[in-house]
Please model this.
Amino acid sequence: MTTYLTWLKNIAVLAVSVVFLVYGINIMSNAFNMNNPMEFVMTFFSASLLILVCLTGLIYCYFRFFPKKPQNEVDDEKE
Model:
């Protein structure tokens, strides 16, 4: 049961990260159409922060789905 909840949590983090990553890219591309320089700077940096947080979520999910084992660790499934 615990492994199912862990997988569900990781999939939820992945889905939320992808959705907000697309949203952040959309905000950043719309920032270049603004006329006011102050609005551009605020929108650009807020979209950059949103994209960085989403990339952190994607990296988290990658290392949770594909964990690296040390070379000398024994695989329990083969025993």
